[in-house]
Amino acid sequence: MNTAQIPPLDERKFHITYNAMVKDLTPGKKLQVWIPIPQDDPHQTISNVNVSKTDGLAQSIRTEPTFGNTMLYLEGMTGDQTALNVTIDYDVTRKFNQMDVESVVADGPTDGTEFDVYRQPSSLCVVNDEIRTTAAKIGSEGTTLVRARAFYDHVAGDMEYDKSGTGWGLGSTVHACDVGRGNCTDFHSYFISLCLAENIAARFQIGLFGKYETLPGQPYETGGYHCWAEFRVPGRAWVPVDISEADKGKGDFFGQHTHNRVTLSTGRDVTLSPAQSGGALNYFLNPYAELDGRPHAGVSKKCIWLDE
Question: Using one digit for the tens of pLDDT, what is the confidence trace for 268-284?
Fold first, then answer.
């Protein structure tokens, strides 16, 4: 397998400053704000989390029950201020996740129901007749690893990383199939849909993405986001894939994730904690706010990355 074009480091340490901005506030309204906070997993360790002042709003750390995503929750009445700025700082140690795929060539024992949540489609990551037909044609035989590799190769060959036009970036399987181009959300929604059609558990993850090269002492603003996927070999392990980066010529990302990333959340159609009044979120990356129980559009973020 061709490895990704990254520095030869087993892990990478960096600091993130996540600045959440809520503007166009109306005085005397109930304000609720949810901001994603990364958490420890087998590939990243989060430490030294610090939250700036929150202008008198009550704050708590919450975890939603479906995917286990963690968030800062703020609640209170708006005063005379028309804007709110909240900064969350944290340190990240991210491991280079390169799996020996030969170790999961054969499926293990059935996982039971533990990962059933990752066998369910979402509003935009769908399993329709076209997906079922495609999945059955290219990935109905062999082990989970063999079928997932066929799906990975199919998406890599069928899709082009291209953010022209409209409709890209939502992670819509239908859009990806219709136009054959998009960004990371579209690539991985297509892949996950194919996996789901063959009852392979697969999950969507989204977060911040730094430069491939380390730049100690040189802080920079990250791009908007990056997303990737994992599929489950029963009884064995989650296997990482990053098809959109492979399409950019960065290497073969079947079985690996580089360490220039931090996962902010997992899953689609996310219900927050406490549950928002508006509909489920397509994915949880940006701050989300409601005024008097109604979704508030005036939210944005700015993230600064600083390598150790």
Answer: 999 999 999 999 999 99
